[in-house]
């Protein structure tokens, strides 16, 4: 913090304070961003709950996380508007110090409140997204363990950042009143630099986590591509986070602090709002399918299917030409070996009086060569007939209604 204050002192002596410079005011930009994302998050959250009538699923933990994130995000938008009015945000710090020095106390208090709500607001929608993964994909084993580890990490980092923000100065009043004797603060700018790194890592892990599962679903190609696109919308939140971190790394955020707060706070609001919107989008698919005209759905499916088939044919054609010779030799040798083995096994069964059976591990086909009471009466054993049964394995797979077009 001492470094930031030193830079501020140096800046005041070297910067030319022209009337045009002092008259600059970008506070309306922050107010516009705050209002816009308050409206957007309200719209998308309301649409999310409206879309639930088109699915068979009820409410889950992810819904509660998202509602909590929404209210915290509204608080963050409110702080963004208030700090323009009571903290001089949008004006250069030289103007505030010269004409409205009392606003700097309001700025410090607003920034402290914003730090607390930001760390909560950025963690809650991410936790909601992970809970959505658990509910939709019904993961077991390692994937479920990774998801729970992500939840624990998100909660732990959020709590630790909030506690650090609340105790960044001792006493906390020293944050806005530097006349208190014996007070001291941590390097707040270095703190924000450090917290950006785990945020980036967790964001990329959350985005990549469902991709393998989605691509392995027994769904048409166009549906899998649509699902991947829906979940990748969260990448816009990552972009906003990167831009916010870039501003912190490239500028002295606490030098012209009232001016720099517009970009830092604005991109923070965009980041958290985008995470909330991304958590809402997966629930829109059944609703969109319900209201989309059949001709439009058919056209989209046909376009995606043609593009996918073109890529698949180009890839498989090359691979087939390279493997054809080896495959033919391998299949011929394998067929001859299987024929010899089958004849040998059946001959042995005849000697044992058809008491055994042949089972193919590859196809699940069982060839029973024994008498059975449910067979048609006749000289079955002497005629060398066989009974063929097919073993069918049924596996019940739990899927979420969100992956379907509508209620069953």
Automatic annotation (TrEMBL):
Localization per record: Membrane
Transmembrane domains' residue ranges: 29-51, 63-86, 106-134, 146-167, 197-215, 227-247, 259-281
Polar residues bias (residue ranges): 308-322
Disordered: region residues: 308-369
Gene Ontology CC: membrane
Membrane topology type: Multi-pass membrane protein
Domain of life: Eukaryota
Main location: membrane
Sequence similarity: Belongs to the SAT4 family.
Stored PANTHER family: INTEGRAL MEMBRANE PROTEIN-RELATED, PTH11-LIKE INTEGRAL MEMBRANE PROTEIN (AFU_ORTHOLOGUE AFUA_5G11245)
Protein name: Integral membrane protein
Organism: Colletotrichum tofieldiae
Lineage: Eukaryota, Fungi, Dikarya, Ascomycota, Pezizomycotina
